[in-house]
Amino acid sequence: MRRTFDKSLKVELARRGLTQASVAEVLGLSATTFRSYIQGYRPLPSGFRERFEAALELVERAERAAEEARRQVLAGGVR
Which pick of 15, 36, 51, 58 has the fewest CB atoms within 10 Å? Predict the structure, then answer.
């Protein structure tokens, strides 16, 4: 089987500090299927890049919101 590895997908995940599992979940894919796209074992479906970018943005927004909520809770301290 000829692999058509697209390193840019993996690089983008690493650059943003995101996990394959978190992005796969947002995309509605199993971790195994997503990993097969990242590693080039399966061809990318039509429109995947756009969905991938949207998923990255959504995961980043969720992580920022969770971090802000954590800061607010911890700032309140124990009473």
Answer: 15
Report the predicted TM-score, pTM, of the whole model to 2 decimal places. 0.74
Residue with tokens 């690493």: 14
Q: For residue 45, what is the DSSP state?
A: P
pLDDT tens figures, 6-63: 678 888 899 988 889 989 999 999 999 999 998 888 888 999 989 999 999 998 899 8
Domain count, the chain: 1
Tokens describing residue 41: 């074992």
Residue 56: CATH number of its domain: 1.10.260
C-beta of residue 59 within 8 angstroms of C-beta of residue 27: no
Residue 29 lies in a domain: yes
Q: Determine the Cα–Cα distance for residues 42 and 77; give it in Å rounded to an integer.
A: 49
- One-letter identity of residue 1: M
